[in-house]
Amino acid sequence: MTNATEGPAFRYTANLANDIEKKWQKYWKDNGTFNAPNPVGDLATDEKLPEDKLFVQDMFPYPSGSGLHVGHPLGYIATDVFARYHRMRGKNVLHTLGYDAFGLPAEQYAIQTGTHPRTTTMNNVENMRKQLASLGLGHDMRRSVATTDPEFFKWTQWIFLQIYNAWFDEEQQKARPIDQLIDELNSGKRKTKDGRDYSALDEDAQRQAIDDYRLVYLSDSMVNWCPGLGTVLANEEVTADGRSERGNYPVFRKRLRQWMMRITAYSDRLLDDLELLDWPEKVKSMQRNWIGRSRGAEVVFTSNGEELKVFTTRPDTLFGASYMVIAPEHELVEKLTAASYPDDVDERWTYGKSTPAEAIAAYKSDVAAKSDLERQENKEKTGAFTGSYAVNPVNGEEIPVFIADYVLMGYGTGAIMAVPAHDERDYEFATAFGLPIREVVAGGNIAEEAYTGEGEHVNSANDEGLDINGLGKQEAIDAANEWLVANNKGVARIQYKLRDWLFARQRYWGEPFPIVYDEDGHAHALPDSMLPVELPEVEDYNPVSHDPNDADSEPAPPLAKAEDWVNVTLDLGDGEKKYRRDTNVMPQWAGSSWYQLRYIDPHNSEEFCNIENERYWTGPRSENDPGGVDLYVGGVEHAVLHLLYSRFWHKVLFDLGYVTSKEPYRRLYNQGYIQAYAYTDSRGVYVPAAEVEERDGKFYYQGEEVNQEYGKMGKSLKNAVAPDEIGEEFGADTLRVYEMSMGPLDTSRPWATKDVVGSHRFLQRLWRLLVDEETGEALLSEADLTDEDNKHLHRTIAGVADDYENLRDNTVVAKLIEYVNYLTKTYPDLVPRGAVVPLVQMVSPLAPHIAEELWSRLGNTESITFAPFPEYDEKWLVDDTVEIPVQINGKVKARIQVPAEASKDELEAIALADPKVVELTDGKNLVKTIVVPGRMVNLVVK
Asked: I need a labelling partner for 26 at 20 to 30 A (CA). Which of 129, 276, 288, 839 fits?
């Protein structure tokens, strides 16, 4: 820690930096420096708003109890630099930060300690706000929200009801209000999903018909049940080995009645509109793969009088199908399970059981705990024969039907035709079970491996008009599709991997559903006047306890214990009746699916976001602009969860006319991570990295040698460094400069506390350029800038501006250091004012506290925040003269200064007149001259 009494009174030490930073942070707060006005509402202003505006957003942080480490603010500092730069460019900039504050950690802490999750969460939020404020982030704090604020989740519940009360019109490819659907059903313009006449149905059947269309619906679906956490998990919350991401408990597949969101209705729009977005191609590819649109055919096999429908993108390989596989959860498993095996059944097919029923039951039990990811990646192929055979529609062949875990219900029909000669997974299964492997595409060696390449079709003809032998891939696909349709054996179809969104959790700390159930179990949406539905106070936050390994246990959420809250008497428009509240809560993704809109209009009690304010900040600016936040910065780990969910919610709101933007985020930037060394002792236990000493290339903790490893900074690895500590030791501006200088923003980089001092010294050199360390007075001259000064200045301005614009803050730092070094060397006493005023302006986005202080000492009375960013003059970016090498017989012997636009003849003349060249060529014959303007002159002499 720097001693306050060391050196002159006005030396830029950590203590002085801290004083300056507190001073300007108070100034910004008191003056509302970063408050961005809205067109209408409580945040509006009488002044005309700039047409040029910018909405910059960081991904919603969760308020962790352990607080921030220096890795967390990396993106926050970068967006702050970007926002500050654009304020200086005259833009109205909206930049704030809220908190994604519902979540399981606070609930688990409540279970352990009895502390209400709200208490824990708010304490964590305040701690994070304090830490973030110390970094000098230019946030409009009037706009900060937390998902746990009743005035926030009131609108989360309201949006849920808009989606619930909407349906997707496939003809118009958009969401419409459910009332319009009911009108069309009543008029006969539209039939029910199963083709019935709506007006002929009874009340319960009509209700079900409407629910079949809703974008939010209750479904008896297979879910990931985690008894150890007492809740259902989304697929993305389950690890590859079938355990919960949080807590590492076993997860089981179980059929439960759950709320689902029909995100699949938007598959095509979610895919196609990716082309409109300025996003990293990696993220776009991840979303495309997650949605997984495939064009193919739905083919009908028959077995035991049942139709087994199979989706395939390769109907041309049907002749190679030698067995079928259906998912263990397939609805026809029971009907296809035969009473006994054939006499000659292969023992490998029986799963070690004497009857198909025993084998199927045992297999289903064994795969219940596997996640979908584990099932897809599992290299060891397992399965059980149902005892039944299916008829291949192209050749009438009977092929055995298995259940196996590598087939999932969520994609296609939950059944596949297996073509082992040309599919790697099918090949592995067929090899393990001794099943036929029949070549239908020539070109490989199927005795050794599946052939997945292209080639002419073979063994692919029947007596009913289908002959694709000799055809290539696409011709064969088209011919097979045409035959299937003509013979009523199949239909053309588009299939998606994307599945509907499981939208319920068996927890306490989350948004309650604005839904109640009547005595017949029918769901009713609550009116707006009854929102928000707030959580009740409870004594016990535990779900009903379960054995973590009990797959047969049933979820019983904590809210089920609050009987006075659950059982209510309400008047929903038809008199008082008894209802029961939903005891599940929404998943944590709910609030983060729309929070950018609440940032726009955070205090509006009449609507979630006034559309005029939304149009100003995020509306489209041209015909092909989707609208949305101008810059969204966050980790790539959210590519297919938060980003897909928020796009879905936003599109529904757009369809219903609540927003003008088609997309929530027009530009996305994925920042890297700050990594750090961690250390483990002989037991493999992590030890505090800050207390490890290095001696002779080895590392020691409390005298014991420890092992060094490298990974992401965090609490669990005991290698976290708090930003508060760095701020105290060097100042927040030093931390900002160091983090931005470490490397490109989109790559991960190693943290090294010992290197922070370099950034501090840069700021000290900057300070000494302008301030007398003894008196604190400005050290300036009014001298004019030399041509060399102007070259350095204007090239720095041009380079720094371009780097700021493109988030290359590491090269901004490099250019500013180079310019400061030039001025320090050129002007050891007084620096011309014209050289340092633009320097302070350029430094301001990066190190705003020191820039404000220097700006003030330069005689300015207004904040530098809105001072115009300096402009460069093109003439100083072009050299009048350039230095080029002169070669003699291919070797550089001299260098000459020549006019930048010199012709070949001029270059040759100047080179031949150079004294050194004259000396080296004296008495020799000039055989040839090679001149490359601007590059070099080569003289060939003998």
From this structure: 839
